[in-house]
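yo

u said u wanted the structure for the complex thing, so here. seqs first:
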Amino acid sequence: NAGVTQTPKFRVLKTGQSMTLLCAQDMNHEYMYWYRQDPGMGLRLIHYSVGEGTTAKGEVPDGYNVSRLKKQNFLLGLESAAPSQTSVYFCASSYSAGGLAGPSSYNEQFFGPGTRLTVL
Amino acid sequence: AQKVTQAQTEISVVEKEDVTLDCVYETRDTTYYLFWYKQPPSGELVFLIRRNSFDEQNEISGRYSWNFQKSTSSFNFTITASQVVDSAVYFCALMSEAFGIQGAQKLVFGQGTRLTINP
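structre next:
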């Protein structure tokens, strides 16, 4: 199993350009997440999905859109990139939770290797 | 509200020293999970441990140990006899209240502690 993979690993954009980051998982997980990591701030949730065709906003959703057309893929789009979106982006996936009282293994999020994005 | 504080931004020690990374969390929930992740220079996030709020037993895994104290809302991580390969950024994270749609659970991360082990 490849686990969670992200494409691309690195990207440099100019302000105003658009791009899509792809996250794929082969663990049949229901839930998928996009985080951004900025220095001194840990990881913050951008958007998440609880299943195919369903997405929702996280903590810092502005400037991003997402889509989950297939269960195994979760796309993160930047329509008009800004320098403030320079960051490392992590995708994660997990089983459907069943609440915190569910099996503990359902509460672990598996992370991809990250995408380093620079917007000039 | 959920919050995780890692007050130590950077720690530098000499190899073979013991080092403790502090983590203090805030949540109003009685059921929650705490995590530690390691981020080596290569950038990926490596899962180290998960602890639920009902299990206050300390855990040891090789040179790693974790001290969970609900009374002080802390979940500290100690590396014994540190090695250069332990150099990384370490994140503490909290998962508690369900939020948003269909009970999705958000991981709230601390700011991270950059640990440097010098030879």
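Residues 101-105 of chain A have pLDDT under 50 and may be disordered. DSSP finds no helices and eleven strands in chain A.
cya
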